[in-house]
Amino acid sequence: MSQTLPELTAEDLRGHAASEPLWMQERRLAALAAAAGLALPRSKQTPVETAPFTREALPAPTQVTLGPAPEGVRLLDLAEAARSGDPALERELGRQTSGSGNRLHLQHLATFAGGLFCHVGRNVEVKEPLRAEISLGDDALYAPHVLVVLEEGAKADLILELTGAAGSETAMLGMVEVSLADGAQLTYTELQRLPGRTQSYWPRRAEIGRDGRLHWILADIGGRLAVADTRTTLRGPGGEAQVLATFFGGRRQHFDMNHVMVHEGHHTRSDIEARGVLQGRARAVYNANSVIRKNAKGASGWQHEHTLMLSEQARADLIPELEIAEWDVSAGHAASAGPVDPLQLYYLESRGIDPVEARRLIVAGFLASLLTDIPIAEVRERIAQIFQEKVEL
Amino acid sequence: MARPELIIEGLRVGVEGREIVKGLDLTVRGGEVHAVMGPNGTGKSTMASALMGHPSYAVLGGSVTLDGRDVLQMAVNERARAGLFLAMQYPAEIPGVSNANFLRTALNARRAEGEPIPVMQFHREFKAKMESLQIDPVFAERYVNEGFSGGEKKRNEILQMAVLQPRIAILDEIDSGLDIDAVKLVAHGVSDMISEDMGVLIITHYQRILNYITPTNVHVMMQGRIVRSGGPELAQQLEARGYEWLREELGLQEPLEQEA
């Protein structure tokens, strides 16, 4: 390969990936070549270009803790999956992102180190949620890759936690790829609880086959700067995708979230429900887009987003969009951001409840309507608990 | 504990730069029921809201003590924990928060850290209070005041009072918008709670609730002050003759202020 990035060469990558199968090494080099010459993504509202996750450097491997994998499921560290060889890994790794033209996607695909590989075989129905935790340490840069593949008719719930060493000032250039074959059903839960000084770039991509169903349950809680965009493509007819997104920013946290649903198949349905809380000087940039392509007849795409502001210094920019190229569809969006009602606080406090506890009650009430849509009780309780703990004056 | 005692002296309250309460003196002790009556817009509700610490009302002068402690220096939740309770005319709605959760949180706020009321005990006691006020038990799981009728909101205020057992309870137009059966029910609920350990201040426009709760003291408020005080007979006099004669007798020439 002749093309490389100024600070990152093919030679560097060969050393980084020495123990990997040849196809993976070649894919890394191809990604590096494709990244060369591309500009970094730009954003008016979010300082992506200057963030430390853009650094051209070799990341340290992440620590992955895994729950048990029942029969028909492969749940393992991505590095280990690469060593042992897996046809689904080779088939799916980078499939959705290598052609995206996004410099940071390609930089990730060139350099990723560790992560999670989850494969559920054809018609396997997993009863208990599968569990994994990806934990960052004290190094400067991490690049975990999460690949979840469900074969035809498979059903599973996955609960993934992102955590890190307290106080560490690290960066993450990660990626999630989810691939659901026809009739596969996945509930993907992610609790992002990175340490307060971590800066992360975390695209999530999913493709859903005919009559497949994907529920994203996302809680963005941690990090100093968290850029996470989620793009779900409903390829086959009859597919269904839902995003239940929660976020809670405080202090000077900055969240940049983007939820895109792309309807290609006819009679596909998507729904984005987001509820966020901001306190301190936190900032949220929230974009959502329901894209209904030509020929996606009978598709429906809906979005609802509400942000509760607990402080006057917090800021939210909400940009819901629709892009519709077919007549026979239903779609719409609603977005709002508003301050906590001082008369609600007064009422609660007039019964002896202190100001922090009063805010906790209001936050719990605000979340309630979204939490009731989460099918896994444990996840509901965890998110409610995390939100309660985060409230401060 | 000694009998509760709320002492208000020279209280002045403003709203949006306008003085509404203009020097009010009133003392309420445990076992007493004071009724503050008067035409609309004379500052009755403003006084009640200011006593509780409503964020839109500014205290411009005077002093308020509860059992010798300076109420005006306290935050809203501290006033409640000192024993002050205001049954509000327009209680807020809190979507997503059940009545039971709200009241349990309020009770626990009064208890020592790490010693919350056992959940089963709370629900048992809460259920008993609801029964005594003829409140449907589903109330417990409904969200605070959300979708409540006017009468349900008032009963919910009295239910909270029954659970929290304040030392001084202020009822701000608890009878307005209620039919006569609801007024009776609310009034009996309050009457049952009266003891040496609780003083009550009823703010009302009409005499009719006083048919079911006999006041020990009746005060008439006009133009931001108490202009006359007496016993229960004063309320009956007002019911029979209205407020106009009193205004003339007192030589209050200016027209009544519009409702605030």
Summed up, what is this model?
Chain A is built from eight helices and 21 strands.
Top keywords for this entry?
heterodimer; A: 393 residues; alpha/beta; twelve-stranded mixed beta sheet; B: 260 residues; Rossmann fold
Q: Ranges of chain A with pLDDT <50 over ≥5 residues? A: none
Most extensive interface between two protein chains, with residue counts: A-B, 24 and 30 residues
- Residue windows where pLDDT falls under 50 for at least 5 positions of chain B: none
Assign the CATH class of chain B. Alpha Beta
Head-to-tail CA distance between termini of chain B? 38 Å
Give helix % range of chain B. Answer: 25-40%
Q: Treating each run of at least 4 consecutive H or I residues as one helix, how many helices of chain A?
A: 8
Shape designation of chain B? globular
Q: Which fold name corresponds to the CATH topology of chain B?
A: Rossmann fold
CATH architecture of chain B: 3-Layer(aba) Sandwich
Structural class of chain A: alpha/beta
* Number of separate helices of chain B: 8
The biggest beta sheet of chain A, please?
12 strands, mixed
Order of helices and strands of chain B: EEEHEEHEEHHEHEHEEEHH
Total beta strands of chain A: 21
Backbone structural class of chain B? alpha/beta
Give average pLDDT of chain B, whole number: 93
Anisotropy-based shape of chain A: globular
Q: What integer is the average pLDDT of chain A?
A: 96
Instruction: Find the count of extended strands of chain B (DSSP E, 2+ residues).
Output: 12
What does this structure look like?
Chain A is α/β, with parallel strands linked by helices and 393 residues long. Chain A has one domain (5-339). In chain A, 21% of the residues lie in helices and 39% in strands. Chain B has one domain: P-loop containing nucleotide triphosphate hydrolases (Rossmann fold, 3-Layer(aba) Sandwich). Chain B has a 6-stranded mixed beta sheet, sandwiched between helices. A 4-stranded antiparallel beta sheet of chain B has the order 2-1-4-5, covered by helices on one side. In chain B, β11 (217-222) and β12 (225-230) form a beta hairpin. The termini of chain B are far apart. The model of chain B has no long low-confidence stretch (mean pLDDT 93). The interface between A and B is medium-sized, with 24 and 30 residues.
